[in-house]
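Collaborator request, handled under Task 6.
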Amino acid sequence: MYRLLNWEFGRWLGFVALLCAGALLAPLYLLNAAAKDYNVFANHARYEDLYAASGCPLLFFLLVLLLCAYFLKTIYAGYWGGKSIYTYLTLPVRRESLYLSKLLVFLVSLLLLIVAQLLSIRLGYALVMDRASAYQEGKMIMHNGLFLAFVRSDFFRLLLPFHFSRLLSSVSMLLVIATGFYYGVLCERSRKYAGFVMVGTAGLVLYNVLVYRLNEASHYMASKSLYPSSLLLLALSGYFVWHSLRWIRRGAIA
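Structure tokens returned to the collaborator:
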């Protein structure tokens, strides 16, 4: 397991570093462009509104899709060329290590991308406030503005939740993305296409939760509990892991 983790991290390191650099630097460029017309007579948007209008949230989701695509490439690379998947399945070690090493590296990469995005939010706020402090002796700067931006922004709270129910929801979404994506690939590799029904179910639940979380402020008068959806996503994640390990133990993915 230790050697497989090291090997997987070695394969991912360059690409993940490039994605994290993009998540860190690209929003600063977008925010600087969005705030270029700021002056003493301009209408100053709230930071979270400026961040959303600049396209930074969309960029983050695109980077997540790129990370998923690279994960797909690393899995199928084991079936191309030297066909290393057959070597792994014949080694005198537990086959679960192959599955867990890939899944853990994917999860860690997703977490690193989220951390880079949070850092870009902090640096972007400093960039915008530095521009606003250039006139009227800094009177246009709002005290505790970054904290208030996190309180008001649904996207910011998706990445850094304030309540346990929202934290559980974000964790369950992260887990179902990683496990469900991997499970879908194994369904195709093992030719067990009925498993795509569960993947589609997870995708539908994930989509509904994500749409609600990104527009939660508009549902303030009719808010709903996120515990049922979070528990369902966690149950689906557990099913994906259990069923994937079952296929790998049997060698069905080869």
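The cover message to the collaborator said: "The chain has a mean pLDDT of 85. The radius of gyration is 21 Å. Please let us know whether this matches your experimental observations."
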